[in-house]
Design brief:
The chain is mostly helical and 78 residues long. The chain has four helices and no strands.
Length: 78
């Protein structure tokens, strides 16, 4: 588990730097700075959540023992 935590931190740092670099390079284009920043921020959040999807699947789908994802989410949130 410790190795997975270190890999996740490395994943976040790598994509954080890549998104910063991408937004700096995007300023040379034709889009506005706010649009580039919002796009890169959204991309960064998606890339940070991507490795956690199996964990979310376990939390929602396996603990509720339901085959319907809508019912599983409702049971988990209740």
């Amino acid at each position: 588990m410790r190795i997975l935590k270190v890999l996740y931190v490395c994943w976040i740092i790598f994509w954080g730097l890549a998104c910063i670099l991408g937004s700096v390079m995007g300023e040379w284009g034709y889009r506005e700075v706010n649009e580039i920043f919002n796009t890169m921020l959204f991309l960064y959040f998606l890339l940070c959540l991507f490795p956690l999807l199996p964990y979310f699947y376990y939390l929602i789908y396996e603990k509720t023992k339901s085959k319907n994802i809508f019912v599983a989410i409702c049971c988990y949130l209740a």
